[in-house]
Amino acid sequence: YHPEPRVASIVASHFSPEFVVNVKETGKTLMVDYSNIDALKVTEIGSARFLHDGG
Questions:
Q1: What CA–CA distance (Å, rounded) separates 36 from 42?
Q2: By CB neighbour count within 10 A (0-12 exposed, 13-18 middle, 19+ buried), where does 50 fall?
């Protein structure tokens, strides 16, 4: 838990309707599938804490 996590980067896929969000301080990388905009699918991937900009 972090009271004010920040987004390090958001990267879109060139091949499918999804993007990757790296969240600083939390050590989380989120894969967001927006193929159905009314029901987003979010998959959480563990990563190193305190990510730097650019993923």
A1: 12
A2: exposed
**What are the tens digits of pLDDT across the range 2-40?**
788 888 889 999 999 999 998 888 888 999 999 999 999
Type of residue at 34: Y
Q: Which residues contact 17 (CB under 8 A, 6 or more apart)?
A: 33, 34, 35
Dist. CA 25–CA 36, nearest whole Å: 29
How many whole angstroms separate alpha carbon 23 and alpha carbon 15?
Answer: 23
* Measured CA angle at 40 (ends 42, 3), to 5 deg: 50
